[in-house]
Design brief:
The chain has helices spanning 3-13, 57-69, 79-83, 96-100, 136-139, 156-170, 174-186, 233-243, 247-252, 313-319; strands at residues 17-23, 26-33, 35-37, 42-43, 50-51, 230-231, 257-259, 264-266, 271-273, 279-285, 288-295, 300-306. The chain is 28% helix and 17% strand. It is of the alpha+beta class. It has a single domain, classed as Beta-lactamase. The protein has 10 helices and 12 strands.
């Protein structure tokens, strides 16, 4: 796809965000569009940081798998063995692997399997969701949807539970685990867990679809295991190239399930092309959309970040 074609799609869709394409260690295309802050007319730049919603699940998976490699967890570890009496509706046979593969069947505080729209969901008291333990009341009391291992059922809450398990067995906070075990090894100096109510000047404000209202009431004030970390297109390139040869990444991207309704496969926290080599992280939420695809065989990386819910998809579909 040519520069002009990407520009055409961006103009037609009023795209706000950043597009970057790398191949064999060279940047083939990198460009920013739209505004990071509409109220003050601040433009996006190629270095703007964007929330990536569920794209952060891959970071959670790698942190958890590093603990598996060290023997602090195993894929067969049951959630109950770590949770004790907390979250009693999680079945006793739900394991770390079930949670990583969205096959746990546990009830979800943010259930995307129905007629869910990003703009519609508002979390009460988002300002208190600054730690993983603070999510316990939000995760509690939700009935099981299906028996563990029975089928694939995308579950946001399951990745918050994974963050909780990781904290309890390691003695380290989830955010520090990701910083130390994923971000630092990859050299991702522009990626972090930013508070939505005090975003720095180099971060894009997320906007609801067809509105100038921000997403500050729609998401936890600090991202957690199920996603929402802020990053840049350049840092995503660092991520793929630094970690694709690591044992944790290779474990995470071995296919575990076919997901025919998405025409994809799933590993442990990562989407996989239905038949090819591409590994995918993607996210969609109020005021955020993101897709980053890496082909370890060819070295091609495509990253599209947007500070609107639908923004990333037209360009991402055209490029991947």
């Amino acid at each position: 796809m040519s520069l002009a074609q990407i520009d055409e799609i961006a103009a037609e869709t009023d795209f706000s965000g950043v597009v970057r394409v790398d191949h064999a260690g060279k940047v083939e295309f990198e460009k920013a569009y739209g505004l990071a802050n509409r109220a003050y007319g601040v433009p996006n730049t190629v270095d703007t940081r964007f929330g990536i919603a569920s794209g952060g699940k891959g970071f959670t998976a790698l942190a958890v798998l590093s603990l598996v490699r060290e023997g602090l967890l195993s894929l067969d570890t049951t959630a109950r063995s770590v949770l004790g009496g907390d979250l009693p509706l999680i079945a006793d046979d739900v394991t770390v692997e079930h949670l990583l593969t969205h096959t746990s069947g546990i009830g979800d505080y943010l259930d995307e399997e129905g007629d869910w729209e990003a703009n519609d969901y508002v979390i009460g008291a988002v300002h208190v969701l600054t730690t993983t333990e603070a999510f316990l009341p939000l995760l509690d009391g939700i009935p099981t949807k299906f028996k563990a291992g029975e089928r694939f059922g995308y579950c946001n809450g399951g990745f918050v539970v994974l963050a909780l398990l990781a904290e309890r067995v390691s003695g380290r906070g989830y955010h520090d685990l990701v910083r130390e075990r994923v971000l630092a090894p990859a050299g991702m100096t522009r990626t972090d867990f930013l508070r939505s109510d005090e975003l720095p000047g180099d971060a894009a404000v997320g906007y609801l679809e067809d509105s100038d209202r921000t997403n500050v009431f729609h998401l936890p004030v600090v991202a957690n295991g199920d996603g929402g970390i802020h990053t840049t297109a350049g840092d995503m390139t660092k991520f793929w190239h630094a970690l694709t040869a690591s044992p944790d990444f290779l474990a995470a991207t071995a296919p575990r399930h076919h997901v025919p309704e998405e025409s994809l496969r799933y590993g442990l926290g990562f989407w996989l092309h239905e038949t090819g080599d591409e590994v995918i992280l993607a996210g969609y939420d109020a005021g955020a959309s993101f897709k980053s695809t890496h082909d370890p065989r060819t070295g091609r990386t495509v990253t599209v970040l947007s500070n609107t819910s639908p923004g990333a998809w037209p360009i991402a579909r055209a490029l991947t």
